[in-house]
Amino acid sequence: MEMQDISNKISVPLRENERLDYVNDDLSLIQKTDGLTFGTDALLLAGFMRGGGGTGAELGGGSGIISMLLATRRKLTSIVCAEVQEEYCELTERNLRLNGLTDKISAVCRDVRAPASVGRRGGFDAVFTNPPYMKTDSGERNVSDSKYAARHEVHGDIGDFVKCAAYLLKYGGSFCSVYRPDRLADLLYAMRASGIEPKRMTAVLPDACSSPSMILTEGRAGGKCGLYLTRPLIIYAAGSRTEYSDDMKYIMDTGSFPGDFYIKK
What we know:
The protein has a single domain, classed as Vaccinia Virus protein VP39 (Rossmann fold), CATH 3.40.50. Helix content is 27%, strand content 26%. It contains eight helices and twelve strands. It has helices spanning 40-48, 65-72, 86-98, 115-118, 145-151, 158-168, 184-193, 246-254; strands at residues 3-5, 18-23, 27-32, 55-59, 78-82, 105-108, 124-129, 169-179, 196-205, 214-221, 228-229, 233-234. The strands form two sheets. Strands 4, 5, 6, 7, 8, 9, 10, 11 and 12 form a nine-stranded mixed β-sheet that branches.
């Protein structure tokens, strides 16, 4: 993951508790210093998703970085980026203007618990999300309310996110998510209960000796039973926590996963 502070190099009006970073794909990203920032989970979800164009919807857009990566890589032609927190929706709008992506991505302040407010039923080829992964009664309370809401299920649980995805997706449409391994059972239950069949899954490990830290999952609306469990994605090379593995270097260079991580058609 590439991220370099360029706030002193580019003249962009920044507000209190904001900074400007240069990230992957020549994107400039305004981020809140007291909120969640661009990380490996966002980069991997954007890489995990297939290309081919079409319409997409992001649920819980944050700063808008995943939508921007997908638009820049031409994996989707048009995207609705839905975020319930007004300050983050406004931040996404500023990031879209900064990177010249307002013609490809629309930022909307919407709640996933009201799917019809996000978009038309069956109107999207793909829906993707990096949702809050902690229950409201777990973990320490963050100082920032917005950061707490981004990590905890304040504005809907995983079932609400998946139900919204099922409402928005065309038959056969793709739902992709990055989630925590300890909540995987909740994700898979919600997907099948909403008519989205899990089809592809990748466990992400920091190194070969560690347990998975993330799970990437793709499902199909109305899909048949049958899950392809890929080989694990290992982030760092053997014996290092600074050098990326060959797979991670490939993702950084191409914006996609190596071919064997996808279901062969």
